[in-house]
Specification:
Blueprint lengths: L1 E3 L2 H10 L3 E2 L3 E9 L12 E7 L3 E12 L2 E9 L2 H10 L3 E15 L2 E8 L3 E8 L7 H14 L12 H9 L3
Length: 174
């Protein structure tokens, strides 16, 4: 994930390189953690309720492998956010962050792209490649950087923290 300063130029570059982006989607993400959970601890699971365009609800469980940017994820679509919040509370999890972003998604071969506008944080581009758990994380990371660099995106703009962590760093706990 990289922070970008010129969204229009970045979108034009992605399109010029064959990435077709979706219409903007509103994503409201509410993330929960166990009390005292530490970022990047591979023994911790993070729970997220995402509501897309105010209509579709997805529950995600994430666990870091080596950092916030490489996770094992399990997802399911559901239709009762109130019940899901109740389940999460009964599991002993607490609110970690609450944020809304506008996302455009696209595919290019094996790569999935996201261009995110996060109010109060800025604009970001993410590229990911879905891999088996046994994949060489460093080799995949270098492959992604080679791709980003062909688009004129510099490693100096890398952002290793998730949006939820960035929000907590900037504003504290919700």
């Amino acid at each position: 994930k990289v922070r970008i300063s010129d969204k229009a130029a970045t979108l034009a570059t992605l399109v010029a390189h064959g990435v077709t982006l979706s219409e903007p989607l509103k994503q409201h993400d509410v993330v929960y953690s166990r009390p005292g959970a530490i970022d990047n601890d591979p023994n911790e699971c993070w729970l997220r309720i995402r509501t897309e365009n105010d209509t579709v609800h997805t529950f995600t469980l994430k666990r870091s492998v080596t950092s916030q940017q490489d996770s094992i994820e399990h997802e399911v679509v559901f239709d009762n956010p109130s019940e899901m919040r109740g389940i999460i509370a009964q599991l002993g999890y607490e609110l970690f962050s609450d944020l809304t972003k506008i996302r455009q998604k696209g595919k290019q071969g094996d790569y999935e792209w996201c261009v995110d506008e996060v109010p109060e944080l800025g604009t970001f581009v993410e590229v990911e490649k879905l891999c088996e758990e046994s994949a060489d994380i460093n080799a995949v990371r270098e492959e992604l950087w080679a791709l980003l660099e062909t688009l004129g995106i510099s490693r100096e703009d890398e952002e290793t923290d998730g949006y939820d962590v960035l929000m907590r760093q900037k504003f504290g706990a919700p």
